[in-house]
Amino acid sequence: MIPREIVPGVFAVGAIDWDRRIFDELISLPDGTTYNSYLVRGSDKTALIDTVDPAKTQDLTGNLDSLGVGSIDYIVASHAEQDHSGSIPAMLERFGEAKVVTNQKCRDFLVDLLHIPEDRVIVIGDGDTLPLGGKTLEFIIAPWVHWPETMLTYLREDRVLFPCDLFGSHYATSSLYAPDEGVIYESAKRYYAEIMMPFRASIKGHLEKLASREIDIIAPSHGPVYDRPAFIMDAYRDWTGDAVKNVVVLPFVSMHGSTQAMVDHLIGALMQRGIPVQPFNLTKTDTGDLAKALVDAATVVIGSPTLIFGPHPQVVYAAYLANLLRPKTRYATVIGSYGWGGKTVDTLKDMLGRLKVEFLEPVYVRGYPKEVDFAALDRLADDIQKRHVEAGVIRP
């Protein structure tokens, strides 16, 4: 990536990772990602806001060289995770006068994770400022977005917000600004679902905190820059709000066709009642797509056969993931088939303990479903419809 000027004296100097396909050995990256770093030049001092993943350090140094950067006074560390902090040691070695500017918790993480010398760190607090000469950086401590030490940086004079991971998207693009809001919306929603959703309550509070500031540009640490901040901020208000949508998410596995027959019947029954369904065959599904669907769905129905005495392992993984992500789902239940016994329903219900949901009557049958079982699925569809009406997401 070449350096590009966002506003006078502020440059994007990070790196594009077109080919990366997995993050944290967990999150798939179908569109690659970027590691955004920003150079802010004042009349007196120069600051670098975040660095890049260690694998892309040369991209960062190359961009700084092309801008003729001979010295950096401050390296702002918004977040200690290595895709943002990993090149700090190289920057400290290159710029011997530079100091890392961060909060106390982040300082402790950087010392542990990267062995940053403590005497190279300036510790700041919430609301503290750093004058650069005609440009003033204000620091906003924002814990649990998505680590406990995260902070945001606001450039007062130019009304630019550098929110680190908040508002980001794993999306590699040569465009400085969001090239297609529809595409970026989906990428940002997936990013929110996989990374930010467990911290929904904290993020709601931080959004309220930001409402008092005039923001013209949002420059996150992943994905494109937003020159229309309302677009992504409104999306986050929607995702972090309490409202759910008239949607049923249906992750499932079927071993010999019995659970599949139940899933197919329930999909049809829900469609007849005006309820959209998003089914996910867990043997084929990208879990990022499942996480994105969970963001605002009113109901989750898990379909699983019994394997030996419990749920299918891929269903266990999906249930564990949903329990970690803690979507605002209102209702949940289980459907499926068993051979001789087991505790599949109880196991899955216990696994969803962190979700504040009403657990609807499951439909769990022995062998291939019979007419009476399909009738029970129809009653479940009626029950879901009733709950959606009561929740105000579907008209009676």
Secondary-structure-based class equals alpha/beta
Strand order of the largest sheet: 1-2-7-8-9-10-11
Helix content: 25-40%
Number of helices: 12
Describe the main β-sheet briefly.
7 strands, mixed
Shape: elongated
Mean pLDDT level: 97
Q: Indicate the proportion of strand residues.
A: 15-25%
**How large is the radius of gyration?**
24 Å
Number of strands: 24
Unreliable stretches covering 5 or more consecutive residues = none
How far apart the termini lie comes to 53 Å
Structure report:
- With 396 residues, the protein is of the alpha/beta class.
- The chain is built from twelve helices and 24 strands.
- Strand 12 (129-131) and strand 13 (136-141) form a beta hairpin.
- Helix 8 (258-272) packs across helix 12.
- The mean pLDDT is 97.
List keywords for this structure.
single chain, 396 residues, alpha/beta, 6-stranded parallel beta sheet, 12 helices, 34% helix, 23% strand, elongated
Task: Give a nutshell description of this structure.
The protein is α/β, with parallel strands linked by helices and 396 residues long. It is built from 12 helices and 24 strands.
